[in-house]
Amino acid sequence: MRALRARKAAGLLPVDGQDPRDPDELLLPAVDETIEALGLGDDAAAAVQLARQYARVIDEASDPAWAMRWLGPLLLASLESLRATPMSRPAAKPAPSGPNWLQQQRAARVASDASRRR
Predict the structure, then answer these.
(1) Average pLDDT over residues 95-101
(2) 18 in helix, strand or coil?
C-alpha cells in the first residue's frame, strides 16, 4: 500500500481518475519562463496575471482540448499584448542607407524635366 501511495504522489498513477499530464505539455511553466525573460515592469502586472491565469486554467482543465480551443486564443492575445510572441515584437530592420524607390523615381523625373527645359 505504501508503494501505491508513493507512485500516486510521484504522478506515476492516475489520481482521481485522471492520467498524469506530461510536464512538457503544461503551459504555465512556459508562460512563467517567457514572462521572466521579458523582464516586464509593474505596469504590466495585470496582463501578466491574466496570461498566467489562462495558462493555469488550460493546464488544470479536465478536457485540455476544449480549454485550448476556447482559451488558447485568449492566452495568445494576452501574450501578444505583452510582446511575448515573435510576431508581436518589431522586427529589427536595418535603417535604409539611401533613397527608397519612390524617391529615386521622383529624382529621375525632376532630372528628366530639367534636361528637357534646357
Answers:
(1) 79
(2) strand
